[in-house]
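ok here's NAD-dependent epimerase/dehydratase family protein:
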Amino acid sequence: MKKVFVTGINGLLGANLIESLLSNGFFVKGLIRDKAKFKGKNHANLQIHQGNLFNDLTPLLSDIDFVIHIAAETSQDLIQYTDYQKINYNATVQLFNAAVYCNVKKFVFVSTANTLGYGSLNDLGNEQKEIKLPFTNSFYAKSKLEAEEYLLQNKDKIEVLIINPTFMIGAYDSKPSSGKIILMGWKKKIIFYPAGGKNFVHVKDVSSGIIKSLEKGKNGEKYLLANKNLSYLEFFTKLNFITDQNPIMIRIPRPILIASGYLGDFIRLFKIKTSISSTNMKALCINNFYSNEKSINELEIKYQHTEVAINDAVKYFEKKKMEHR
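and the structure:
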């Protein structure tokens, strides 16, 4: 039985990945800061370990075949690059070196699609394209890219794979993280949407892709796990159909988004946390589109329809709402 060490097990991807690993016959060790807050189910082949990424993790890695590193600082309101670098780069380097010391076979780093260049529907972004504006100004994307570069420079020590998922949707988004976009439109009489678009992917397909990469992934390669390229209007239209609602749809003019972004930049000068920034607002105005051709050809992923991902997310939030009544 292959043994896997996973970080970030309480997040959207981590929770789904743990479930998929166990159902595929892996033995899993998961790292979490507080065991009492683990939201998953108990399993004979699952060990939950309390700790943080800066602990000495070599005792946990001594019998591990694969490390899948998901844990990251993803907040959009932090002020300085070092706020992201600490977790997304420094902790990654420390974990990687622990994996090397323990002779782990493969280190899988879950990054973000935004470290790769996006494109239009006629010229999709792919694994060969370099990061582009506005993400070159994103502290989150830059810290992830810095970690990618370090790992690829050290791929001769142990095998390294970079997973670059796009915008994930699905169940078990307890925080919520990307699921906020569902809550922005669900049961709303008016939906305000930006002009741009992005690539959406079912979180279960990302989990499946990561597991397939353990066998089929090639050392030093990046894999975009992506599915459907949609404008925000198209996405909310699908959400409206699935939830049987008919809200008023109002597009937010690009100048208003950009102006609010610069206002956010000004507020940040006073060390006030806000997710509103020129970088984040510009990201809402572009078509952030990607290709999944490489992951289909090399990892043999079969992607599900976006409607399935939306429906799974909605059902999860409905269940969660019922539980809190």
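+1. The mean pLDDT is 96.
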